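REVIEWER CHECKLIST
Item 1: Sequence provided? yes
Item 2: Single chain? yes
Item 3: Sequence as submitted:
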Amino acid sequence: MRITTLLAIIGGLAAADAAVAQQRHDSNAPISFDAGHAELQDQQGRAILSGGVTVRQAEMTLRASRVTISYSGKALSGGSPQASRIDASGGVVVTRPDQTARGAYGVYDINRRVVIMLGGVALTQGGNTVNGNRLTINLDTGRAVIDGGGGAAGTSSTTPGGRVTGTFSVPKRN
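Item 4: Structure as written out by the authors:
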């Protein structure tokens, strides 16, 4: 089963919350990181980070056990490398204002401005949660697409029967 959802709209979130969730991500902002270990493989155009990795860009934060940042240009010869993709594994958590996504694996395609998460994915916003096996977030539009099955090899869906499941909060009424 496939579900397309804008969590800012579904579940009766307030209009102010919807404005925050739909804010366009600044993919041109600098990317900073913090890790226990870093290995620069300049000839291959990548940096491999491990040990409680945190990567930040503007208001988005990615945390994982291991992260590979692919880039063009040479860092060691005085060039100006440009990051193009971030691959993460091991307890991946991506947070944006009022939104958290969790999964086994994550990919941030910087050029396409898309975050893809795989393996037992949970997307939470406020009191609303949607679970599946694959999540794609368009950082320009804020649109989230969640699939129940067909995740990465070696991952298993935490949802019964490979379906998308969720819980939405309901506003209190007098």
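Item 5: Key structural point noted by reviewer: Residues 2-167 form a domain with the lipopolysaccharide transport protein A fold fold (CATH 2.60.450.10).
Item 6: Recommendation: ____
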